[in-house]
Structure formats: structure tokens, C-alpha cells
Design a protein that fits this description.
By secondary structure, the chain is α+β, with helices and mostly antiparallel strands. 34% of the residues lie in helices and 20% in strands.
Length: 495
């Protein structure tokens, strides 16, 4: 039996109508489906929502469903008096109250549909659990028969569920499904794939579909219709607004006056898929960042205050490594007078001190791979090398990585006099310089560090003291401790 997923547009009510009638054909309730009359309590809905989301993941369904106004036994439409979207828990809207107690990965939609007999059916579409089980009030639930039970009471089901969740990838899940091929391709800017990849674009839909299915951008379903995957939508959507669950992952660019957030000058929210809009995004950012115009000979040359390569890689990293399971906004680029901050949801999967030399890891491997093949970022594992090296070449402060509870922020700095850089930032720059030299098969020296900071030979003493402190803090170590001080070379502590 085909289950229809809600799609945005004029046919959304029609799809909901089809969904209800298809679900009614099932002989019984399932671990991912529950029928109700008018009976409800907020706590019951919360527990059932957890159980159904987990049941959908366990049974490899994209969604679970709770229908109000359907008889449990006969599946006849009896109607409901409740409009779930208007219900409240105390003074709080029911939806907001539920989201405050559900785990962050819970995702659901309320709808109300007028049926042919004039009676109304309430529909709660619940997206399957991803990354972890869905919990309500810090407890995860599961459907056993027609009952909602604590998952911890069923260890075998718990083990099966976690195995399914671990093997589920964001990129492979459906953003939209049950579409004719022409309709699916119409809302994707697939020409970008061929243009950037240097591939001759087929002249017919079937030829295009061959490439799109090979890349996992679209998937042909068992019923002959097509689904657009999250991978396809997030990269190639003409309009991210066509994909309600992904539209909030659009990248946001904000420019401020000065070095704080008190005065906003400009804001833009990207409306296209990442691959479709990336070059336009970079041009927009580049137009906003400060420039310098040194006079070389008789000519005035215009230079960006930041290495464009560093900005490009940092933005691409934010897109690639974000945690799509965390609700809320997508990556944010904030441009200040003397720095740029690039923030994404999720924290790195590797220690930030080993981000240069460690084998790269990403929670979105297919997204990362395709973005690299589309030349949106550097080859695997070299992105951060390029960011650090380009900042060093421009003698700028080292890029900073800061971790928060559920996000990562990378800060790029414009030119700052050596004397104005904090000791902490100098030490971080010293460590990263040692890492870059190690990757290049060389070692940090007093001379190389002076060159990196753009200071004169007379600053040798200051640089020596900085190196000594970095050694004391176990950031770097001598290559050969027996070497005479003036010839001493240093490597990262992990080398």
C-alpha cells in the first residue's frame, strides 16, 4: 500500500485526504499508526508522539501518524470536535508545550481535513526518530500492540531501534515523495550539477534521471513515482521553501556596524539549495567585507581584508558539518568591522586540536563528498590546512574555533598588530603554525614564527618567550631537546 506524504502547494489538502483514506485501509493500528476519537490528554499525546516516532524508525517508515475522528475498530470517519492547532495546555499552546518536553530531534505537524461527509479529521504527522530516540519528559516510549510502553521495558526492541537509528543517514531520507519525474525535476536546478561537473546535460528527463538517481538526489520508488532526498533538496532546490522541513536550514548572512551586534546594516537569507546558490553567496559575502587599497607603484590595488579562500572553506565546512537533527536556523555568517564569525549547529566529530592532521569525519558524508566533487570546497582533509595557511600567508591572527553546547563557531580576524593580539591567541597561532609545518614536513623555528607574525628580527626575544610558554603548556615540544637553543626546532605535542 502506498502512503502519501504531505507536499507543499495546491495539492496539499488532496494529499492529506488521500493519506487519511489510505491509512483507513489498514486492518489494524500499527507501531507507527494510531486512530483516536476525541479522547486526548496533553501527556498522552506527548507519550504517543514519542512512541510513534520511534516506531516509525524501527519499521523504516519516513513518518508515523495519529488520526483524530476515526473509529478504532471500523475505521469509519466519525469526526472530531478538536482542532489540534488551537488546543492549549494551561495558557500555553499545545504544540509549544509538547516541543518544550520532547527531545530536540522530535519533528511533527498538525493538520485538519474536512472529509466528504462533512466531518473533520485531525492529522498529526510525526517524522521518524533520527540520531537518537525521541523522548517525552526525558523518557522514550514505543508502541507494543495498541499500547504505548516505556522503551526500557523492552530491551530487544530497544537494541533493534538503536541499530536502525545508527544506520539511518540524513542525506538518504525523503524531503518530498510520491512525485512524477517531471514534477520532481522541475523544482530542482539540476543543470548546476552538469555545469559544475563538466558533464554534458542529457536532452530528456530520463537521461537526467539516470544521473540524479546514481547520485542519490532522487530515488525511484516501488510504485514508479519519485522521491527527492534531503541530499538532493539541500543542494539543488530552486527554492528551499518548497521543502518545509529544510527551508529553515538556509544560510543567513548578517552585516553589523562596528564590532558588536547592536547595529545591523544588512541581512540576507539564502533561498536556494547550497550548490545552486553557493557562488552567489560567496560574491555577496565578498561584497560586504572590508577592503584595503594599498598603492603599489603608481596603481591603487584593492585587497580583501580576509583571504577569500579561508572564508570559502569556513562557509563550506559550516554547510557540510552542520547537525541537521538540531532544529532551528541553518549556518550563519556574521560580518563585523574586524572579524567574521561563521556558526553552524553541531560540534566537530574530532578534537579541534587535531583538526589539521586527523582523518576528516563528517556526520553528512554524502553531502561532503558531493560538495567536494562539485568543487565547492577543498579535497578531503585539506580544508582546514588551507584556512590556516592562507591566514598565515596574510600574517593575520589565527582562525579560532569555539564550541558551544550544540554549535561550532569559526572566527576569522582581519589585520591586528602583533602587540594587540592576546597571549592566548598568540599561543593558538603558535600551535597551528607547528601543525602546518608538521604537515608540510618541516618544523617551527623562531625564524618561521617571526615570519608568520610579520615581526622584525628584533622581536626574536619575544618570540622565544612565546615558544617557551607554548612548550610549558604542552602545545608544542622540541624536535631534539639536545639541540643548541638558537637552532632549536619544534613540533606539535602530538607528533
Amino acid at each position: 500500500m502506498q502512503i502519501y506524504q504531505l507536499q507543499q502547494g495546491a495539492n496539499s489538502m488532496e494529499n492529506l485526504y488521500k493519506l487519511i483514506n489510505e491509512l483507513r485501509k489498514l486492518p489494524n493500528e500499527t507501531p507507527w499508526l494510531e486512530f483516536k476519537h476525541n479522547n486526548y490528554t496533553p501527556d498522552m499525546i506527548g507519550k504517543d508522539l514519542s512512541a510513534l516516532a520511534n516506531g516509525a524508525a524501527l519499521h523504516e517508515k519516513s513518518c508515523a501518524y495519529m488520526l483524530w475522528g476515526i473509529d478504532d475498530d471500523t475505521h469509519e470517519i466519525v469526526g472530531t470536535d478538536y482542532d489540534l492547532q488551537s488546543l492549549k495546555k494551561g495558557n500555553q499552546e499545545l504544540e509549544n508545550w509538547l516541543r518544550s518536553l520532547l527531545s530536540r530531534n522530535a519533528d511533527f505537524e498538525f493538520h485538519s481535513v474536512q472529509m466528504d461527509n462533512g466531518k473533520r479529521v485531525g492529522v498529526l504527522i510525526i517524522y521518524k526518530a533520527t540520531n537518537q530516540t525521541v523522548m517525552f519528559d526525558k523518557i522514550d516510549y514505543i508502541r507494543v500492540g495498541s499500547y504505548t510502553k516505556r522503551l526500557s521495558e523492552y530491551p530487544a526492541l530497544q537494541a533493534q531501534l538503536w541499530d536502525k537509528i545508527r544506520n539511518s543517514r540524513f542525506e538518504e531520507r525523503y524531503a518530498l515523495q510520491d512525485m512524477e519525474l517531471e514534477d520532481a525535476l522541475r523544482i530542482l536546478d539540476y543543470s548546476v550539477y552538469f555545469d559544475i561537473g563538466g558533464i554534458a546535460q542529457p536532452t530528456d528527463f530520463s537521461g537526467v534521471a539516470h544521473y540524479m538517481t546514481q547520485e542519490g538526489i532522487i530515488v525511484k520508488q516501488d510504485n514508479g513515482l519519485y522521491a527527492i532526498t534531503n541530499l538532493g533538496a539541500i543542494l539543488f532546490a530552486k527554492r528551499l521553501s518548497d521543502f518545509p522541513r529544510l527551508s529553515r536550514k538556509a544560510i543567513r548572512v548578517v552585516q553589523y556596524r562596528g564590532n558588536n551586534r547592536l547595529s545591523m546594516l544588512k541581512e540576507d537569507i539564502g533561498g536556494k539549495g547550497y550548490a545552486v546558490g553557493f557562488e552567489g553567496l560567496m560574491k555577496f559575502i565578498e561584497a560586504l567585507i572590508p577592503t584595503q587599497e594599498p598603492i603599489v607603484g603608481a596603481l591603487r590595488e584593492r585587497h580583501s581584508a580576509y583571504p577569500i579562500l579561508a572564508i570559502r572553506e569556513a562557509v563550506a565546512n559550516a554547510l557540510i558539518h552542520q547537525d541537521f537533527s538540531i532544529p532551528g536556523t541553518g549556518p550563519v555568517v556574521e560580518i563585523f568591522e574586524k572579524r567574521i564569525e561563521i556558526t553552524n549547529s553541531g560540534t566537530p566529530l574530532v578534537d579541534i586540536r587535531r583538526i589539521i592532521d586527523n582523518p576528516p569525519k563528517s556526520r553528512n558524508e554524502k553531502l561532503a563528498s558531493l560538495m567536494r566533487r562539485l568543487r565547492m570546497c577543498e579535497e578531503l582533509g585539506s580544508g582546514w590546512d588551507k584556512i590556516v595557511s592562507s591566514c598565515e600567508l596574510s600574517q593575520l591572527p589565527a582562525p579560532k574555533i569555539e564550541l558551544y553546547e550544540e554549535s561550532t563557531r569559526v572566527t576569522l580576524f582581519s589585520e591586528v598588530p602583533f602587540s594587540s593580539i592576546s597571549t592566548e591567541d598568540k599561543l593558538w597561532a603558535c600551535y597551528l603554525h607547528a601543525c602546518i609545518k608538521q604537515v608540510e614536513g618541516e618544523q617551527l623555528t623562531n625564524s618561521s614564527l617571526r615570519e608568520r607574525f610579520g615581526v622584525k628580527d628584533s622581536a626574536s626575544g619575544s618570540i622565544s618567550r612565546l615558544i617557551k610558554e607554548a612548550v610549558n603548556l604542552k602545545l608544542i615540544k622540541p624536535l631534539d631537546p639536545s639541540t643548541a637553543p638558537r637552532y632549536m626546532k619544534y613540533i606539535p605535542i602530538w607528533a
